Sequence to fold (84 residues):
Amino acid sequence: MGELQKLPNIGKVTENQLNEIGIKTIKDLKEMGSYEAWLAIKENDPSACYNRLCGIEGAIQGIRWHNLSDNDKKTLKDFYLMYK
Fold:
């Protein structure tokens, strides 16, 4: 298990995708942010979904993505729909 899998919502597949785009540490992820990280993953995996975006944001916040605020979920959904 790598460092990123210690975060909520990050499993082996997502960690591998993050590693492929240059994110190796929690600090790297926080510096890039969920939007940029998700866009970079989407370039390699067009099936990257809304749940993946929420999962990354939840990991950054240190919570399960289901517990993101309604405002955060709406903002993430609006962003996702722009790139769907």
Notes: The chain has one domain: 3-83. The domain at 3-83 is CATH 1.10.150.20 (DNA polymerase; domain 1). Residues 29 and 36 are 9 Å apart (CA to CA). Helices lie at 12-20, 26-44, 50-61, 70-83.
